[in-house]
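Incident log, entry 3
Record: Alpha-1,4 glucan phosphorylase (813 residues)
Problem: checksum mismatch between cached and fresh output.
Input:
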Amino acid sequence: TASPVTASSAPASSVSGLARPTVDALRAKILHHLEYTLAKDAGHSSRYDWRMATSFAIRDEMLKPWFAATRQTYDTGAKRVYYLSMEFLIGRLLEDAMINLGLHETIAAALAAEGQTLSDIIEDEPDAALGNGGLGRLAACFLESMATVGVPAHGYGIRYEHGLFRQRFEGGQQVETPEDWLSQPHPWEFARPEAAYIVGFKGHSELRRGKSVWVPGETVKASAYDTPVVGWQGKWASTLRLWAGLPTTQFDLERFNNGDYTAAAAPEALARTLSRVLYPDDTTPAGKELRLKQEYFMTSAALQDILRRYQSQFSTLADLPKHVAIQLNDTHPAIAGPELMRLLMDQHDMGWDEAQTVARATLGYTNHTLLPEALERWSTYLMGSVLPRHMEIIQRIDEDHAKAHKRPPSVGIVQHNEVKMGDLAFIMSHKVNGVSALHSELVKETVFHDLHKLHPDRITNETNGVTPRRWMRLSNPALSTLLDETIGEGWTRDLDHLKTLEPFAQDAAFREKFAAAKRANKVALAGWVQDTMGIDINPDAMFDIQIKRLHEYKRQLLNCFETIALWHNMRQTPDAGWTPRVKFFGGKSAPGYFVAKEIIHLINDVARTINADPVTGHLLKVVYPPNYNVSMAQRLIPAADLSEQISTAGKEASGTGNMKLTLNGALTIGTLDGANVEIRDLVGADNFFLFGLTADGVEKRRKNINHAREAIEDSQNLRDVLQMIVEGRFSPEEPDRYHGLVDRAWHHDHYLVAADFDSYWEAQRAADALYRTPQDWNRKAILNVARSGFFSSDRTIRGYMADIWDVPSALKD
Ligand code: Z57
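Fresh output:
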């Protein structure tokens, strides 16, 4: 039911310095787009139509800051940053854009006047899931922070037709179905058919007048799509440029007319394959030709685009590093080193030495993992056949490096007929960074030990961060409003303002308000769990949350074992004063990762069993909603009491979910791994549940080949857990379902689940005890929030600007 809106009904908003439209103006804008962009009548419009019209109205408001940033960057000749990443895990864009432009309330009012509910429209938007997990989400936070801090920045990636698969559970097992976000038009992107480049593959390299020339055997066209990303209060914007694959040959009309439709469509299908799907592996390389081609496709298109833009502004390519910084998000775009050299030498006549110097001064490389199995390597055979010219360049980079430095035999980009992409990225970058303090030290000691000795100034640390706009203001309005009222709104731009919240931890009245905000979030989540899963949970129970990709090193299995032990103990003494808990799990496994899929199955079987037990029904529930994604994270994180960060020490490079949960007032139970170390240092050891072996301790403990057996024999609890699983308590229809899993727990416990079990159990009971004293729990939770300002990705970006990119902010103040 539409109602008239008067000019005076535009709500006062907090955003200053931004000319913002009134409710009436936005309402008219939405109706205009409904009619003229969508050709729909307001009376016969679906939720989709309203969402598209609203998105177009908001998008119009993004153009002003986007144009202004673009123009200022051209006019001032400012240095530009290019972030090359195979993943951008963006999630939904509508609400984020509304919040950053200060239009949230205005749009809500405009839609209400048309009888529409903003939250329904927001929920209608599919997640842009062009990433797997932490690495892709970090890239998305960085785009938003660069737009907030004022960095002239482009992200470059692939416009995957199908993002990360959708996860369903069938009989508790993960089933993957394709994700189809582009089945509806994506309102945020602008096709840029004029920005298109030819990318070659295969063929051979030949000498022409003393110069190497690559004659590719195949070519595809990379065609650009741009999405603007506005920063907080719309003062600046960055651009996400995604490449789609198109054929380079003209449509074969003759074949088509002769009835050979398949042959006529073949070139198109082949080119499209490059941007068809996101590889669903996280931390395990794919090793497939198509993946190598995708990596080169994105990287080559990006570098051609960067050089074209550079040459439109500047003349001497020798000055490239003065005006351009290119950051490689992991080794996935590491072919950038040889590709940039090839473009400079083969297409712009630069000599070898200068090309190498220019490329190295321009490139920076971020390492995101220490797991040796996760480091990309390509067989020289594959590299030589897909990218023959690059293989020559790589060989010569390697020979140059060998000549320039006394290298130990373990160093060398090409070894055992494989190209080690980490070593290539290291050697071709002026800076190499890890993503947490511990990780960066371990990078020096392990994967790049020898290269670090040769280049001791190259490795730096840039501890990850998360954007407080999405991960507080958008996802947690209850706490955001309380923060605004208590310490002012400055925290949104400068998260260090949270420090001023610290004294309020002692204030009983504030603690009550803080607890009320958390409880409201928990009630909302409980409602959603009831509606979507039919599970009844108690909002006064402790909400204990582990959300992340499924991986053995992240040890969801440890949490599952502890859940079983807790249930077993609760059943034996239901009246022993237990702290009621809801254990939440969320996350996807790579489709081919058998062990991770078995763990998912077990968690679901355990959930089914426990949730059906009338004895413990008021004490323990296990909730594993399928298809965990960015939007689900936004629902879960504000409602968390306890954050599970329990990876085997030395394995999680940083973690970023750990930061989001701390920021939202959860206490962490965790190991000394990744950024947990910094979280604990900052929030204080008293406000963190620490357990488990240290990274050093893990290495030592592994030397005892009986580490698992000895730990199990020493732990009554763990023995009972394994016994219950082996007996088929959680899989009565197939009692031996988990015999393999239990056998591995005894004999192949690579991630030391058994060795850390008792310590974890004790830390969990300490959490139980504290939760029974809400005053103390809430005081510590408030201190977690107050001391988490460091974990803003704005701080991370300023670190890259100062240490790696040598770029100032384009914003005054
Ligand atoms: C990925 O999400 C991460 C590392 C990888 O090597 C790949 Br491939 C994907 C994650 C790390 O596991 C996290 O610890 C880290 O916080 C995140 O990258 C962002 O740096």
